[in-house]
Specification:
The structure is a homodimer.
Chain A: H1 7-10, H2 17-36, H3 43-55, E1 58-59, H4 60-67, H5 71-83, E2 87-91, E3 99-103, H6 105-114, H7 116-125, H8 129-151
Antiparallel strand pairs in A: 1-3, 2-3
Helix pairs in contact in A: 2-7
Chain B binds a DNA duplex through residues 26, 29-30, 33, 42-45, 59-61, 69-77, 79-80, 95-99.
Chain lengths: 161, 161
DNA sequence: CACAATTGAGTTGTGCGCAACTGAATAGTA
DNA sequence: TACTATTCAGTTGCGCACAACTCAATTGTG
């Protein structure tokens, strides 16, 4: 049915969706790097703080689920946040395998400063809030789809070739 | 005009567009990692090869412009591709500051194998080509906008607050 | 209860991405 | 023609992402 589009065409840089995605992520990263400089946070650290502000005390595992990160990334990241005095880590008494992470007073204090970050980013980018909401929803669906495709064997529907 | 949305709301994990973007990029990365395993390439290396297949010989600088990467990232990446025997680097005779990068025979041979990668990825994700085209265009505009905002001072238009 | 399997956090190693820097080559200018 | 400024590639250092691994704690099963 679909005439196979010229194979050559598929390998053009401009045609790689993931490349466009990658670039947008990095461009956004630059904006955030700037906005977060004063807070002394990297963007992933900022996301971790957001998760902790929002949910309160979390295990490393739960935090990893929320942020889509494994312990290999989170452990050193949390260690840096702890060194910065923003969080504390403590073995769970109920399950000694788990480690509970929670914000310190300094970490909570940072929350007030962080309020301005989304505002700054929105202003700098000048993007329409409703467009952003739509984009976010679209990306969410895309990620779910890709995760499903990554987890199982072939996705694309049961009747696929 | 727009009633400032609750500041608390802006710091919710689900509301971070960049987070959604980041996650989609990483989810896509997983798919590509799989698809590229046989070629022995990482995703950024794959993009570099695509650029070289498409444009032929390129300076490191030009390649960096195409891929949105600086020499700090490209130099070691190209060194790895050279070690793998896929590209060669050579000082330009016209301008001894520049280094020309081009594919080897092995690098060209890999092109045939790489033809299947976009097909595999498309099949695994099962995403509608027209949706993808639209998403790519949207992301392109977003990136341009973010780059402009990052380069200049405040973007958001001249009449912004 | 004993013991294998699983779970949770951490470590190690590799590669990417970026800032800040070095050093050589070229361009621009007094 | 000297001399400064810029350009280009590369290096260093740091943080993130991920695979593969370790080790202790817990769970499941006989």
């Amino acid at each position: 049915m679909t005439t196979t589009p010229d194979a050559e065409d598929l390998l053009r840089l401009e045609h790689q969706v993931c490349f466009a995605l990658h670039n947008a992520t990095r461009a956004f990263g630059g904006i955030y790097r700037d906005a977060l400089k004063d807070l002394g946070l990297t963007y992933p650290q900022y996301l971790a703080m957001i998760a902790l502000w929002q949910h309160g005390e979390l295990t490393v595992k739960r935090l990893g689920e929320l942020l889509r990160l494994d312990s290999g990334t989170l452990s050193p990241l949390l260690k840096r946040l702890e060194t910065a005095g923003l969080v504390v880590r403590e073995r769970s008494a109920l399950d000694e395998r788990s480690v509970l992470v929670r914000t310190t007073a300094a970490g909570e204090a940072l929350r007030a400063e962080a309020q301005s970050v989304p505002v700054t980013v929105a202003r700098r980018t000048g993007l329409d809030p409703s467009d952003l909401r739509e984009l976010r929803a679209l990306l969410g669906r895309l990620t779910d789809r890709l995760d499903a495709a990554g987890a199982g064997a072939d996705a694309a529907g049961p009747t696929d070739c």
